[in-house]
Protein: FAS1 domain-containing protein
Organism: Adiantum capillus-veneris
Amino acid sequence: MVAFICPKSASVALFLQLFVMQISITLLVQFLFLAPTSMQAHAQQRDLSSQDLDAILQDMRNNQFFTAASILSFLKPPFLENRITLMIPTDAAIASVVDRFSGLTLQYPPIVQYHIVTRNLNFKQLLLLPQETWLPTMVPSKGVQITNNNPTNYTLNDARIVKPDMCPSVVEAEIACHGIDRLFDISSVLAPEPENPPFPSEPVAAPTPPVSPPPPPPPPSPPLSPPASPPPPPLSPPPPAPLATPQS
């Protein structure tokens, strides 16, 4: 287990350890017994390999997201798969909400799932989406909404992306990670799925340069005139008639 740094007291650190251990148990119960439909919905996705998970954790630690890395290393969530986007709160963001947790209940697994968007969206692709676009998460019928699509102040449910594309080691596994400055609130009015969600069923492709139209064909060449025949040679004058010989 990798120890994480928390600005709270040692008792808070112990609380977080108990918290994530409880989540690991309740997640297994929820996904193996209570939510077969949810598992079937993701049956076509490829499970995340242990190598990919280790790469994610290392990328998170390299970017100073120690608390979230510790939580994921505790959980090793069985539902993690490819083609997802992890929204990862900073250490300070997690520490700021520890005091709200008065007990360990089954409400915590959805909090983790609520920070996993079920599409692989790097930051360049997120910038293509208009403001108020709703993005589905692993919590059924719950998602997050783009509340500001300014590249310098990009927010989802008012949580600002402070570290975009922080997991380069798992790009080939179609996984994106973005660091955010606060936790998403699953009870937010922005969470429920709208009647006509604007987000497409497939991930948005990165923009491709416009294809230049082919150049117009050259104008047709004028028909070639047949070569002119050379003028006929001048006629030679007829030879002079022979002189008559006088008869004697």
